[in-house]
Amino acid sequence: MFRIATLTFYASFIYYGWLLFTVVFIRYPITPEHLYELTLATRDVNYVPFQTITNYLQGAYQVTLWDAWLNVFGNIVLFIPLGVYVHILVKRKRITALLVVATTCFIESMQYVLNIGATDIDDIILNFTGGMLGMYAVAISFRLIGMRRTFYLATLLSIAGHILFYINSFPLM
């Protein structure tokens, strides 16, 4: 039973990595024309903490309130599983935190290099917050129900999350 759960856990982690990659990078068309346009476009970078979040929530951007909240909380929710997976694997808070911040900094750096989206310190803060929420959920679960049960619980919840994501990605007819 434990081997099946272990294989399922790793498969789920790989699938989460693919989902994260597609949400961050593949949402934009990849055509030769688009790649050429990217080389000509200016790059947006925000180094001021909480500026983008504040602008979203105050309505400074021309987006709906739903899109503003989705951007803020979506960045948090998207990285909760990373904190869960990494903390189950390494079981040390400092290493988990370092890997989460390194991952989000890598993503933001690649967004700058590829000129996809906007490179923003607020994204790093929100992504790190999500990763830490996941890490602390696992740490608390380790203490309350033990490592093995936490492992099984995380595996089951990740499968359920992947199924919900898959179902939600198709529009209802």
Description of the structure:
The protein has one domain (2-164). Helix 1 packs across helix 7 (147-168), helix 4 packs across helix 6 and helix 4 (65-90) runs antiparallel to helix 7 (147-168). It has helices at residues 2-25, 32-40, 51-58, 65-90, 93-114, 121-145, 147-168, and strands at 45-46, 119-120. Strands 1-2 form a two-stranded parallel ribbon. With 173 residues, it is mainly alpha-helical. The protein starts with a helix and ends in a 5-residue tail after the last helix. It contains seven helices and two strands.
Strands, total number:
2
Helix content range of the residues, please?
over 70%
> What radius of gyration results from the CA coordinates?
18 Å
- Whole-number total of structural domains: 1
Order of helices and strands: HHEHHHEHH
**Structural category:** mainly alpha
Question: Quick one: overall form?
Answer: globular
